[in-house]
Specification:
single chain, eight-stranded mixed β-sheet
Length: 377
Amino acid sequence: MEKMLDTVVIGGGAMGSAAAWALSRRGRQVTLVEQFGPGHKIGASHGATRNLNPGYHRPEYVAMLAEGLSLWDELEQDSGEKLLARTGIVNHGPDPRLPDVANALNQAGIRAEFLSPAVAGERWRGIRFDQQVLHMPDGGQLNPEAALPAFQRLAVARGAEMRYHTKVVELKVMDDGVRLTLESGSGTEVVNAAQVVVTAGGWTEKLLAGAWGSTQLRIPTLRVTQEQPAHFRVADEGARWPGFNHMPGTGAEYKGWYSPVYGMQTPGEGVKAGWHGVGPVVDPDRRSFQPEPVQLAALQDYARAWLPGVDADSFEAISCTYTTTPDEDFILDRIGPVVIGAGFSGHGFKFTPVVGRILADLATGTRPAPEIFRASR
């Protein structure tokens, strides 16, 4: 006999875990299905550090930042886990948006101050600073390896069910909900759900293909890339490390850059640095996990020029995925019985508990997401 469930969350990464947490807080029956095991490294949510970079000026994101800072504090209290190290974030380089960012953050009660490159260099000597420096002390590093289990434990404590190693091989939208065909170690199973929340990262388009039969679902194109940052060994043991983002200009010293550079210190692993969203396009089921050598060499050149506190020749390569929309804004929307959370474009993790709240709003019909996240935009 086919089972009938209330809400099935598909994908147990950051956003799916947060959606299960937020829905369970509202007393909803939640079943989360994840095709891999807990803590796997095949998607986008593994690793011990992500920057909480407050460097936004658009009102939708600034509001989410303010809410997120509060929710991360609440999650730490409820879970007993340390999830955010407030090292501060410094954004620097010839970025014309930085004054707008500073004004928007200060108006929202999120601290932001400009420092000269000389002052910043004295404070954080592991980094060579470029032209203008915006210091945001409320930012820092989040820990996905602690956060995802915290979301899930709190959800389970409120009755949510977690099903690992369970793959959705078919999703069909029906007149009365959604029919899911699941595969696990115990075989194939068909279940019906009143609604589903799809937080499947790089697998989103595969999962939704054919869900509405011959009708083609229209959402922004999702580009899945294999991103290849690296942890560089710390050479200056006395240096302090904020999170950082470095915007390039047009001069000769930026030749060979692929994109802006982001980075942070991961305790015990070194200083992470990486290009943003420019890795090779991949099928998430057929990844090499090997760094693209030309991009990696360019990243080493960046470290030699701009990170005097590291050894650019001593590093460990990292592999993760980005799922990016054309405008780099998220997809947070509901289409019939299907709620979609996708396209976090390499800057979503800081908003994880807010995204969970928004997805819960969509699933319960409480309120829509901001217009910029609509699938039909």
